[in-house]
Every structure is written in structure tokens, then in C-alpha cells.
Amino acid sequence: MGKNYVDIENDHGETLRYRKHVNGRGLVAHGAKVHPDARVELGAYVEPRAQVAAGATIARGAWVESEAVIGPEAYVDANAHIGPKAQVGARAHVGVRTRVGEGARVAKNAKIGDDEAIPAGGTVITDARGLHLAA
Questions:
Q1: Strand locations in the chain, DSSP E?
Q2: What are the domain boundaries of the chain?
Q3: Which whole-number Å values give the CA distances from 133 to 4, 78, 124, 128, 130, in the listed order?
Q4: pTM across the whole model
Q5: GO: which molecular function terms (predicted)?
Q6: Mean pLDDT over the full length of the chain
Q7: pLDDT at 133
Q8: In a designed cystine with 123, which of 84, 100, 103, 105 is the match (CB 3.0 to 4.6 A)?
Q9: What pLDDT does residue 129 have?
């Protein structure tokens, strides 16, 4: 049986320890809070001080940076990037390769398409079809 953790050196020469999440085997840094009912798929990363709520999914290759908050039943699709201190609301969907900037907010139930970029500090609210509404 293999190790349940991986040590990775960051850009500052510090070694960070990531454990493999029980549901999906993605990597969760020491200090992150990921609910056991959340799914962190293989190849996804959740950084220190980030939070992922129950029922949320962090898909393969997605990256959730420090102090980001992912709400209940939210879906962060493959290769998406959630910036530091960003918030993704309950049941929101962030599309493939979408970038959510530092401190940005994605409202609950919002549907963000593929290959979009949400600027730092921005707020996105959509209707059920994914059409952007005024924030």
C-alpha cells in the first residue's frame, strides 16, 4: 500500500505536504479544509487555508488556491483555476479552463462557461442558462 501523502516544493523553496483526499485521490494541502463528502479528483490541488464544502467537486487538473472558498455542491470543472481568496457559491458551476481571479465572487447557482476569465475582485451572477446578469 502506497503513501497517503506527497511532499511538493513550492516557488519559495518551502516543502508543502499534500494528502490524498479519500474521495477522488486529489491532493489537499495541510491546512486546507475539505469536507469528506466533497470530491477532489486525481490531478486536482487544494492549497493551504482553502475550504471545500460538502458535495462540491474539484475536477481533474483544477487548482484551488489559498483561502478560496468553494460552496456546497459547487462544481469546479477540469483545469479551472480558482484564485486566492475567491469564492464560488453553492451549486455554482465553473467551466473547463476558466480562471477566477483573486478575491472574485461567483454567485450561488451561477453557471460560468468554458475558457472564461473572471477578473480579480469581480462578481459574476448568471441566470439558469449561464447568461450574465448585472452584479
A1: 5-9, 15-20, 27-29, 33-34, 39-40, 45-46, 51-52, 57-58, 63-64, 69-70, 75-76, 81-82, 87-88, 93-94, 99-100, 105-106, 111-112, 117-118, 123-126, 132-133
A2: 5-133
A3: 43, 24, 8, 11, 9
A4: 0.90
A5: transferase activity
A6: 92
A7: 62
A8: 105
A9: 65
- Fold for the domain defined by 5-133: UDP N-Acetylglucosamine Acyltransferase; domain 1 (2.160.10)
The per-residue pLDDT for range 16-72, each reduced to its tens digit, is 899 999 999 999 999 999 999 999 999 999 999 999 999 999 999 999 999 999 999
At 29 the three-state DSSP class reads strand
CA 104 vs. chain centroid, Å, equals: 12
**Hunting for cell 442558462 — which residue is that?**
129
Residues 133, 127 contacting (CB under 8 angstroms): yes
What's the full length of the chain, in residues? 135
Cell 490531478, residue located: 43
Q: Own/partner pairs for 97-105, CB < 8 Å, 24+ apart?
A: 102/65
Contact at 8 Å (CB) between 76 and 56?
Answer: yes
